[in-house]
From TrEMBL:
InterPro entries per UniProt: MeTrfase_RsmB-F_NOP2_cat (IPR049560), MeTrfase_RsmB-F_NOP2_dom (IPR001678), NusB-like_sf (IPR035926), NusB_RsmB_TIM44 (IPR006027), RCMT (IPR023267), RsmB/NOL1/NOP2-like_CS (IPR018314), SAM-dependent_MTases_sf (IPR029063)
Keywords, sorted A to Z: Methyltransferase, RNA-binding, S-adenosyl-L-methionine, Transferase
Pfam families found in the cross-reference section: Methyltr_RsmB-F (PF01189), NusB (PF01029)
Protein name: rRNA cytosine-C5-methyltransferase
Catalytic residue list: 393 (nucleophile)
Gene3D superfamilies: NusB-like, Vaccinia Virus protein VP39
Binding positions (S-adenosyl-L-methionine): 271-277, 296, 323, 340
Lineage, opening ranks: Bacteria, Bacillati, Actinomycetota, Actinomycetes, Propionibacteriales
Keyword Methyltransferase: yes
Domain annotation SAM-dependent MTase RsmB/NOP-type: ranges: 167-441
Species of the source: Nocardioides pinisoli
Family: Belongs to the class I-like SAM-binding methyltransferase superfamily. RsmB/NOP family.
Domain of life: Bacteria
Length: 441
């Protein structure tokens, strides 16, 4: 059998396919991964290995590239070869894979996908990488921390420098200093727990516990899974429960638990895609005799919302495909409105490994303009005495408190009644921000 046809480990080949799709097609790892796993017929431990390999190599490639380059005599590499080296480096520095297995499987992988030529280079580079651990390499390739703390953290914790600076500013604004910045960045690099939500009236926490879940203690509907495929949990497969970060659950609960004056029958999720918060709100609304309108601008995302709501009680929710910045309904129609605004996603970097490398400061500037329009539209959509919750999966000041204060500053009919910021390193959740606002009666 020729080297080109030599069999390779399916999990590692699947992980490489994910890296290739992210690099060449601007794919999102969490969306392409299930397709790749099905293509290679991976389940259980093999699927978990492929997931960790792909997510970790993408998440940490800033540091890994610096390590790889330090081991090269000529820094120019074929992109396909660099992807293989990233996967090998992740196994050597961040996983419990024996050195010989990480190196030999990487050599096999590059032979099977690129050819025999780069095999020697991959072998030599990964042997050099294996001579130090992750902390030693980070200290070697990152700028001196005393002289350039943000530049050091950008390399050592594998985040773009502007992201490091924006998160440091957010910590300073919320907790008074950025002393926790290293801990926050390290939490961004930790694989997140799988958290489920038991949609009330449709599933119970006890049912999810019986499927291997453990209560989290913050959301009354949340459990975490120690392992396994969440789609194998019957309540999840049937749409009575779902996969949802606890921070997202707490945002939905902030809307559901806020006090409104008078009628409480019509609820709105202004930017509902992909539908997790809408599904939880619809379940709560149904128990109170209220109805949720789940609005989403993009039709394909509206279809995802409809899928998330497939098990909701009859009449509890309606899905609309419309532009939330130009509402189709009469002003003052709703009693409660959630505006989970499009954002940079810098609070969910654990789950979206490629996001940190794709976003730019210019993206934030563009998003802030949209966020302000959406918040204004939400406030116009709620009646006097009703409430609006403005939320983002970003702690960045420009997207959170600055948006709220800018909108409130030009309106004379709204008060802020509550605000919270969650953190991965403190709360074990995505860095969700939420502000509860009330139209004056």
């Amino acid at each position: 059998m020729s080297d080109r046809r030599r069999p390779v480990d399916k999990a590692r080949r699947a992980a490489l396919d994910v890296l290739t799709a992210v690099r060449t097609d601007d794919a999102y790892a969490n969306l392409v991964l299930p397709q790749v796993l099905r293509k290679h017929g991976l389940q259980g431990r093999d699927a978990a290995l492929a997931t960790e390999l792909a997510s970790g190599a993408i998440r940490m490639h800033g540091l890994y590239d610096a390590v790889i380059d330090a081991c090269l005599t000529k820094p120019r590499l074929q992109p396909e070869v660099r992807d293989v080296l990233r996967l090998g480096t992740h196994q050597l520095l961040s996983m419990r894979v024996p050195d010989h297995a990480a190196i030999s499987t990487s050599v096999d992988l590059v032979r099977a996908t690129v050819g025999h030529g780069p095999a020697g280079l991959v072998n030599a580079v990964l042997r050099a990488v294996s001579r130090r651990d992750l902390a030693a390499w980070a200290s070697e390739v990152a700028p001196d921390r005393q002289d350039a703390p943000h530049a050091h953290l950008a390399v050592a914790r594998s985040h773009p420098r502007w992201v490091v600076e924006a998160l440091g500013e957010a910590l300073t604004a919320r907790v008074g200093s950025d002393d926790e910045l290293d801990a926050l960045l390290e939490a961004d690099n930790a694989p997140p727990r799988v958290t489920l939500v038991a949609r009330p009236g449709m599933a119970t926490v006890e049912e999810l516990e019986a499927s291997g879940g453990t209560r989290t203690g913050r959301s009354p509907y949340a459990v975490t899974l120690a392992g396994g495929d969440p789609a194998a949990v019957p309540a999840v497969a049937e749409g009575r429960a779902g996969v949802q970060d606890e921070g997202s659950q707490l945002v939905a609960l902030a809307l559901a638990e806020a006090t409104v004056a008078g009628r409480d029958e019509r609820w709105l999720d202004l930017c509902a895609g992909p539908g997790g918060k809408a599904a939880l709100l619809a379940a709560i609304a149904a128990q109170r005799g209220a109805v949720l309108v789940a609005n989403e601008r993009q039709p394909h995302r509206a279809a995802l919302v409809a899928s998330a709501l497939r098990a909701a009680p009859d009449g509890a929710a309606h899905v609309l495909a419309g532009d939330g910045m130009r509402p189709a309904w009469v002003p003052g129609t709703f009693d409660r409105v959630l505006v989970d605004a499009p954002c940079s996603g810098l609070g969910a970097l654990r789950r979206r490994p490629e996001s940190r490398w794709r976003r730019t400061p210019g993206d934030v500037e563009e998003l802030v303009a949209i966020q302000q329009v959406l918040l204004d539209a939400a406030l116009e959509s709620v009646r006097p005495g009703g409430v609006v919750v403005y939320a983002t999966c970003s702690p960045v000041v420009a997207e959170t408190s600055d948006v709220v204060e800018a909108v409130l500053g030009r309106r004379g009919d709204t008060d802020e009644v509550d605000r919270f910021q969650l953190w991965p390193h403190r709360d074990g959740t995505d860095a969700m921000f939420a502000a509860t606002l009330r139209r004056r009666a």
